[in-house]
Write a structure and sequence with these properties.
The chain contains 9 helices and 5 strands; from the N terminus they run βββααββααααααα. The protein is an alpha+beta fold.
């Protein structure tokens, strides 16, 4: 049967069956894509082309099954697995501890790594040396799952690597600091991947990078109140790090650079504010002065403020 909110014909999933106690659904766009691939394979008389999408989405399904079964092992059975054109999703309901979530996230890439190793062993196995068709399938299995493993361990949200990094940092430093530390790296890596895909004319990879970048942009809009000091400064590993024995942030290299770069302008703005009032400053100048004073406060030695 089809499920979805019913508002749009493309917002549908097709139920395939229940495996290992977890329902499996195919998104309708994926069903259309696989149908086209079957027709093209039959027209071109290419068995490898016919089996390629089966191997690809079978590998993705086993990846998602790794997430799903590990969650079920913790007593938290997933609602379903949905396969779509860009991969798959194991819908795991809330109820796991932070550490359990990390294990559930990790099992997906681990399954892909095991499949890649299996494909590599079969590819170089003497048993398949004289069976070109089976050896080609083993090569596909190795390549697909190695790419799946490497792609998913990148610290990009909402891929497994990005979710794992955010979960790990949440355990160590809390949710706010975890988002500050992980989201800038995620968006930077996506920008690099997107530009690389354009340079090498890999349009499908570019579309995926763009789609995931928009997901990250929505994350930034949701959490932008956590980046009042700036967004990209959190690429620096010690930015906004609390000093030892204190919950307050200490001065960092980024603060020193900011103070050095804006010193002359900030001193002029302070004189102008003293003579004519802070309300005479432009909003952008007021923001620079506030950030400058905040940075000086974080850099103060022994709680002493020296503005000059």
């Amino acid at each position: 049967m089809f499920v979805g909110d019913g508002r749009h014909p493309l917002d549908k999933q097709f139920r395939i069956g229940v495996f290992f106690g977890i329902p499996l659904y195919f998104h309708i766009i994926l069903v259309i894509f696989m149908g086209i691939e079957v027709v093209v394979a039959l027209i071109t008389m290419s068995p490898l082309r016919l089996l390629f999408p089966v191997l690809l989405f079978g590998s993705v399904y086993l990846h998602e099954l790794g997430h799903a079964l590990s969650s079920a092992a913790f007593g938290n059975r997933p609602k379903r697995i949905v396969m779509h054109l860009f991969g798959g999703v194991a819908e795991v309901p809330p109820g796991l501890s932070r550490r359990q979530e990390l294990w559930v996230i990790a099992w997906g890439p681990l399954v892909s790594l095991v499949l890649a190793i299996l494909g590599g062993v079969l590819y170089y196995s003497p048993l398949l040396m004289f069976i070109p068709f089976a050896r080609a399938l083993a090569g596909y299995l190795f390549t697909m799952n190695l790419i799946l493993f490497l792609f998913n361990v990148l610290p990009i949200f909402p891929l497994d690597g990005g979710q794992f990094l955010r979960g790990y940092l949440t355990l160590r430093r809390g949710q706010s600091e975890a988002i500050r530390r992980s989201l800038p790296w995620s968006m930077l890596l996506l920008a690099i991947l997107g530009i690389t895909a354009l340079v090498f004319n890999m349009m499908f990879a570019f579309i995926i990078s763009l789609f995931v970048f928009l997901v990250n942009y929505n994350e930034w809009q949701r959490w932008q109140h956590l980046f009042q000091r700036g967004f990209w400064i959190y690429l620096w590993p010690f930015a906004n790090a609390p000093s030892k024995g204190s919950d307050k942030p200490s001065g960092t290299l980024s603060d020193r650079l900011f103070v050095w770069w804006h010193r002359n302008k900030a001193e002029k703005l302070m004189r102008l504010a003293d003579e004519e009032g802070i309300h005479k400053l432009k909003p952008n100048d007021r923001k620079i002065l506030e950030d400058y004073l905040d940075a000086k406060l974080r850099l103060r030695p022994n709680n002493r403020l020296d503005l000059h």
